[in-house]
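Example 3.
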Amino acid sequence: MPIQIYNTLTGKKEPLETVEPGRVKMYSCGPTVYDYFHVGNARAFVVPDVIKRYLRDRGYQVLHVQNVTDIDDKIIQRAQSLGVSVDEVVDRYTRAYLEDLLRLGCEMPTVLPRARDHVGPMIDLIRVLFDNGLAYAAGGDVYFSVERFPRYGQLSRQEVSQLEAGARVEASAHKRHPADFVLWKAAKPGEPWWESPWGRGRPGWHLECSAMSMAYLGERFDIHTGGADLIFPHHENEIAQSEGAVGHPVVTYWVHNGYINVDGEKMSKSLGNFWLFRDVADRWGAPVVRALLLSKHYRTPIDFTEEALEAQARGLERLYRTVGDLARRLHPDAPQLSSEAAAAGPAEQALERVLQEKEAAFHEAMEDDFNTAMALARLFELAREVNRYLTEAEPAPQPGPQPTLHRAYRLLIRLGGILGLRLDEPLHSRADDGELLVPLVDLILEVRQQVRSERRFDLADQIRDRLKALGIQVEDTREGARWILSDASR
Amino acid sequence: MPIQIYNTLTGKKEPLETVEPGRVKMYSCGPTVYDYFHVGNARAFVVPDVIKRYLRDRGYQVLHVQNVTDIDDKIIQRAQSLGVSVDEVVDRYTRAYLEDLLRLGCEMPTVLPRARDHVGPMIDLIRVLFDNGLAYAAGGDVYFSVERFPRYGQLSRQEVSQLEAGARVEASAHKRHPADFVLWKAAKPGEPWWESPWGRGRPGWHLECSAMSMAYLGERFDIHTGGADLIFPHHENEIAQSEGAVGHPVVTYWVHNGYINVDGEKMSKSLGNFWLFRDVADRWGAPVVRALLLSKHYRTPIDFTEEALEAQARGLERLYRTVGDLARRLHPDAPQLSSEAAAAGPAEQALERVLQEKEAAFHEAMEDDFNTAMALARLFELAREVNRYLTEAEPAPQPGPQPTLHRAYRLLIRLGGILGLRLDEPLHSRADDGELLVPLVDLILEVRQQVRSERRFDLADQIRDRLKALGIQVEDTREGARWILSDASR
């Protein structure tokens, strides 16, 4: 079956046909690096990651570009509020983004372009837009003239004539039309700037995605992803810039993911109803967050609740436990079914059929516009059947190969891998282990308090000295013991 | 002063002149993802990272491509020895590489191209080499004919006529000349393969760097880095392929870093005298490894010893402590020097001069072929002077701005940042905190053993239950208590 993709531009599902046979070129809108990303942002990273993994499993070579917006008003404001330089904000949160992206189980994109390193190509693009009569300078800024681009509004299905300055359209005295948007902003005092033919300033946000997508993927590429909140104005403006420059459509499929909702409202920084991914991952483990983000079709909203996380945690625990049980059963030292029993028994034949059915159903789900909700359900079902087999089938004492179980193991690992779940590794990662530090030290100090209250001061002192050797300084106060992790002493 | 770079191709230092004004395009040979990387590999990642950071500080926009070799004999062998699929080896070690790269304090490269996603452009490149009369097919493989490329040997300063099959030149019955190298290998059973005009097979290792560097940086770019062991044959062959295809030099500056030595021998996987970066980082902290790798000029060998690590650890502890002391002194709640005293005192004036001198000396070192040894020494000296000031200057009780101290803080952070040391963050990171898990649990169990020996079974049981609630299963055996981290129960 060909893969079907829902295209926001046409409003329907279409079969995947790539510009270059066997290769998929995909661009995803990445983060603005002014804070840690929240669970809503995380969905926009997980969706293209799963698309990429599935396409690769289907034999495509995939080039994936995901930008880093490191020029932005929010970054400048954040630097001011933290009392540090803009560069420090960018360094800190770019790094945090990459750490969190890995922790979320995402592959690194092939290209991670930072806006700051691509100001040259952005200026070149503005030049072309001037040549094509689509840009004008006013009040030190440069604007895109939406009235000069006939297809403006095609993605968000709006008429230019209906667009007035409002919620998502910024008013300005210099604009010829309220929906015109800035390509180049004149520098204000204390802000980062670059030289340009229009004076010192910085590129508009929309411009970077046009310049950086075409710089790495060319003038025609296959898939563009982003959150549904980016359809207008960001992606509408990106289309205007890119098509306005090259004179033809650049992106074939526009893919937009739905929101993460909290009490019925979109999780967002500006509403204040957000949970940082790293905090949720600390508490629940990163794979639980990932599973939650895949638990619905990518265009469907997801309600972010304790219950939903709890359900995913329970599901994953069963899934990982089954894979672990299976690995132990297949271990060379374990008692094995005899070759004949393993191959010929009715239980094995039934399991073999289950493997084939679940694999086919998994692919059917993913082919249908990457329906991870259905695919994840098939994976859970597969694990349940394997678990039932393991519980019911008695291993014979003599060693021998168990081909069906080996196939079951490989299939679980492979399908899990397509969803970015690494079922052969512990559910809780090394990064999560750091989280045990606080409860462990607290526990030791409670025990110490106990032995102190029994006047066992020698043991209490010994515990304090041992902790100190590990770089943990304990201070006894009237309210009890306090501790800090002393970096210098380690 | 212009930046001077030592160019292996010309054998001398040359001033940096970029192809495109204000932008530097750099390619670095990345890892083959078949194992965790060792400290010797780590140097080849840290060197371009520091070059990139310094060039950006100097105002350049930097594009950095660092490839991931995920098609290779070593990967296939590793998959066989681990009993897992080639894809699993690639996934596991690509991810580990990226985690370790971040932990090493490296920025992500702009582009992280995987060989598997670029087989198409590699095949295209072979076609061009055929057209140019430089490639021939033999025995199912395709080879590059070194005798047809007149400049072969220019980088490693060898004559083609002197090159015979030997240590670094593989013999083959199909080759016309012993130094000819493979561009396309016919598939062997059980190996990954791709379709090509020459049958099913896979690209040669040298080919990927030619194809992927030009795909992202164009036919002329500025800097190519790699370990000195790559000069021949890898980079010699890359030049032959790239120049052979486009007809002119592609890379301006060839930059090669020296080895990490263990007892006088190059640290390498094949010699078995290697330490994995993650293991050394677990024990010493990642910044200590990074400082060691920067403690000599990049072309100078470094002896990997306990004493060298110990020296860097001591140096960094002083450096981070000084920055921490300075931050506390500058904290709004701390007693501050009065504005006049801070600006006008002779101690402040002396410190101001030190800042200027050390900053200039730091730049002088980095401009001279990125001499990180000298630059790091200047940073340590700067911290020492700041520390002396802090120790000797008495803070006046009244609050007020301390402009010199603020400048000192900013300068330390910025120069540290150029070397990839984040002086405003703890020396030991979250990743290192996970390492406290084992000693902390061991300590708790020792205490438990102690109270048990005193027949305090209630307290011992309580400790066991509390650990269990944290996912740590304790089992009492005749040899003492054993514990495991149980993932399923968390």
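The longest helix of chain A spans residues 306-330. The longest strand of chain A covers residues 221-227.
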